[in-house]
Write a structure and sequence with these properties.
The structure is a homodimer of 148-residue chains. Chain A has helices at 10-14, 21-32, 39-46, 55-67, 109-121, 137-144; strands at 72-75, 83-85, 92-96, 102-105, 124-135. By secondary structure, chain A is an alpha+beta fold. Chain A is globular and about 40 Å long. The structure holds manganese (II) ion (2 copies) and zinc ion (2 copies). The first copy, chain A, binds a DNA duplex (30 and 30 nucleotides) through residues 16-18, 20, 22-23, 38-40, 52-57, 59-60, 63, 80-82.
Chain lengths: 148, 148
DNA sequence: TTCTAAATTTAGAATTATTATAAATAAAAT
DNA sequence: ATTTTATTTATAATAATTCTAAATTTAGAA
């Protein structure tokens, strides 16, 4: 046995890019959370541990990782900020338009769709953004009691 | 027989809103095209026929229609503009990141996912954004011949 | 037909997420 | 060491969208 867990970040070096502390920290944060954070949120979380971090670096890194297919950009979720997801396996993301959180929903059907689309479209499919939106249980309760 | 095709725009008046010429034209344009246009594109198309039209009205109307569930906001497609879709039935949208066009893909699986998500999540599902992205056949050809 | 109040449109200003720029730093190659 | 290349950083610029307030339209009452 050589190495049991080859990190997707290895792809960086294969592409002639460097595995810097900033890139490592940003990717590690993304894999360790299930909150689908935005660039600004990542920046705020990492700033204490990483005094000199720049927001531009966060954006640069996220774009790099997306282009390498290591992470997915999910787009906005009621807010107007792009949310990122280190889980690139086919799954359903479910966003609450009221509190702007995104959770994952297990679904066996998504993988079938992925194949269906790849085969019947003529497109070269690079990624998927399966995002349902609505109101989470907590925010539903607040909605049903509108004002007061 | 009273009326065979009740337009979704009837919902406007039921919600106490007015069915203005601008709203009617914007919705008609969306239903008659399959191009999933942006607010700016809708504005440019309607400006000749509608001299006094304002871009703010296009944004206002699109937001109104989205909130009523009459149309869907698909989000960006490689560009950074929100694309809109008058087809609210469950279907797969497929975006080309190179030319920023979006086409529809028929899929029976999407409807099942919609139910699956609604039942197992506890969310009140208001809409779906099923968007795959990649390269369309035309842009694939251009990619394989990178420079020159 | 006026009159009045609410809804809507409009032009333009403001906001803000993201991208671009250019200098400083760090790492790799020679 | 020196040179080159990649990267980070601070900051400015961009541009999609939203906000604001005045003008216009509409529906209904008088
Ligand atoms: Mn996810
Ligand atoms: Mn569509
Ligand atoms: Zn919520
Ligand atoms: Zn294309």
């Amino acid at each position: 046995m050589v190495n049991s867990t080859p990190s997707p970040l290895q792809n960086l070096q294969q592409a002639g890019l460097r595995l810097t502390p900033q890139r490592e920290a940003i990717y590690a944060l993304l894999t360790e959370t299930d909150s689908h954070p935005t660039a600004a949120e990542i920046y705020e979380i990492l700033k204490p541990r990483f005094a000199s971090l720049s927001l531009a670096t966060v954006y640069n890194t996220l774009e790099t990782l997306v282009n390498l297919g290591i992470i997915n950009a999910l787009g906005g979720a009621g807010d107007s900020q792009t949310h990122y997801d280190a889980d690139t396996s086919p799954h359903v993301n479910l966003a609450c338009l009221a509190c702007n959180t995104i959770v994952d929903i297990p679904s066996t059907l998504v993988q079938e769709i992925h194949q269906e689309v790849s085969q019947n479209s003529g497109f070269k499919v690079l990624g998927a953004r399966v995002l349902y939106y609505g109101l989470c249980p907590t925010c539903q309760a607040k909605e049903t009691t509108p004002n007061r």
